[in-house]
Design a protein that fits this description.
The strands form two sheets. Strands 6-7-8-10-11-12-13-14-15-16 form a ten-stranded antiparallel beta barrel. Strands 2-1-3-4-5 form a five-stranded mixed β-sheet, with helices on both faces. About 30% of the residues are buried. The longest helix has 22 residues. It has ten helices and 16 strands. Strand 4 and strand 5 form a beta hairpin. About 25% of the residues lie in helices and about 40% in strands. By secondary structure, it is α+β, with helices and mostly antiparallel strands. Helix 8 packs across helix 10.
């Protein structure tokens, strides 16, 4: 007598269905990444997520967004997409460069609402990003699992009348109730709560285990039918935020341009006094702003820094009234503190600098024109503003007043010992961003010194006043780190 091999085949069937059933019951998460470390950090986060969850990421996530006609360009849009894909959470990874290091902001967001379940902020090197994510992962995973166990995303769907009537547990309960005996006639359910309390539904709840978030957990139950995506509807999404990005810590600029100088007297009573005019000379301009606190913080200290500015004329020779060329040295150097105030598209800055500007004509064989050298020493408060005109274009404006306590040879006994100087300057620039770090700027600057000579009768040189004007234009390359 032969016995059919039903039991071994059943064991094999149950063994094959077990992993599939467990995979269907695992919570679902979506993984999205952006920033300079997205290509290297996203695979690490996906690999960690797949160890505990069903995971949608990369091309699969983009394909789902196209199929449903939903965008996937921002965290808010991804939160909505995650809910439509019936996932419990979104793992959102944002990276940003800060000098030679990077910041990683990894958030676990609840699907549909965007509520932050967990958040890890990391400062890493490019090579250390993988290890840092592995260390931060357990806290993120626990937060997602705790959210799934505390408030399953599909609990409300399982409680609706249409789902209760078509779910395997309800059908199983109906069959069990019929086997036990006659049932009372059912009346139409006026509300979901009444439908849930019907005899068949209660019997089904007792006879069969409740389905999990992604399908029935019992081996004998019929797999849940996939419903087509619901028609698009307006979903109120709580705004999500990546938090304030750490501001730039180092701003460098190098520029080349042309400078012009005009020095003139007014009410001249001494014919030997001569003015000076420089039509144009090449100029090198350098700038540095360093905010040490921005390396480690995004708070107020991140916006207090050091500032240095310098310009120098190149290959300049001055020609005297007699046609003789003289060597010329001209430079402006200033350093101080700067406080910036970011206001969205507008950024204001207040700087205080101490500066030295000189313009000297070297004598030739002990002789030179009767034109005094100037060595201005000044203290300057300056207010500047930078306004974003678009994604890549910025307009810069600045203005400052110069208090000049010393001015060099022009205030000596040989020239004008009772001299008083006041000055002001202004500048404008237009920048075009080439990349997140590089920018090209064109700009123009104007500075004017007003000299009150206070000459008296009997002085060797007599004039009412003088004006020293400096005008420059440049093209600069800027780097922000």
């Amino acid at each position: 007598m032969r016995v059919p091999c039903v039991f071994p085949l059943g064991v094999l069937l149950l063994a094959a269905l077990g992993p599939l059933e467990a995979a269907a019951a695992r919570p679902c998460v979506a993984v999205a990444a952006r920033g300079p470390l997205a290509e290297s950090a996203a695979p690490v986060l996906e690999r960690l997520a797949r160890q505990r969850f069903r995971t949608l990421a990369g091309r699969e996530l983009l394909a789902s967004s196209r199929r449903l006609g939903l965008p996937a360009s921002s965290p808010d849009a991804l939160v909505v997409l995650t809910e439509r894909l019936r996932c419990e959470a979104l793992l959102d990874l944002t990276s940003a460069r800060r000098g030679v290091r990077f910041t990683l902001d990894v958030r676990a967001l609840e699907s549909g609402t965007g509520a932050v379940l967990a958040r890890e902020r990391l400062t890493v090197t490019r090579k250390g990003a993988s290890r840092a994510l592995q260390q931060a992962w357990p806290a993120l995973a626990r937060a997602v699992e705790g959210h799934v166990h505390a408030a399953p995303v599909h609990a409300a769907r399982a409680a609706s009348p249409s789902v209760a009537e078509s779910s395997p547990s309800a059908r199983s309960g109906t069959e069990t109730a019929r086997a036990q005996g006659p049932q009372q006639p059912l009346t139409p359910a006026p509300s979901p709560s009444v439908a849930e309390s019907s005899p068949s539904a209660r019997s089904g709840a007792e006879a069969a285990p409740a389905p999990g978030p992604h399908g029935p957990l019992s081996r004998g139950a019929t797999p849940r039918e996939e419903r087509p995506p619901a028609a698009p509807r307006n979903i109120a999404v709580a705004p999500t935020s990546n938090g304030p990005e750490r501001p730039r810590a180092l701003l460098l600029s190098v520029g080349l341009g042309v400078a012009r100088r005009v020095f003139t007297y007014s009410d001249v009573a001494s014919p030997s006094l001569v003015g000076y005019r420089l039509a144009g000379a090449p100029q090198l301009a350098l700038g540095l702003d360093w905010f040490p606190g921005a390396h480690v913080s995004s708070g107020p200290l991140a916006h207090v820094g050091l500032t240095v500015r310098t310009t120098r004329l190149l290959f300049v020779r001055s020609v005297g009234p007699d046609g003789v060329p003289y060597g010329t040295d001209a430079q402006d150097l200033a350093a101080g503190l700067v406080l910036r105030l970011p206001l969205g598209a507008l950024e204001l800055a207040l700087a205080g600098r101490y500066g030295l500007q000189h313009f000297r004509i070297a004598p030739l064989e002990g002789q030179k024109p009767l034109l005094p050298d100037v060595d201005y020493r000044y203290v300057e408060p300056e207010l500047s503003a930078s306004l974003a005109l678009g994604p890549v274009v910025r307009l810069g404006l600045r203005g400052g007043y110069l208090w000049v306590p010393a001015s060099g040879e022009v205030s000596s006994e040989r020239f004008f010992p009772r001299l008083a100087v006041a000055a002001a300057e202004a500048g404008v620039s237009l920048g075009v961003r080439l990349s997140p770090a590089w920018e090209v700027r064109v700009g123009a600057d104007y500075r004017r010194y007003l000299l009150e000579l206070h000459t008296q009768a009997g002085d060797p040189l007599v004039a009412g006043g003088a004006r020293d004007e400096h005008l420059g234009g440049s093209v600069a390359l800027g780097l922000a780190l």
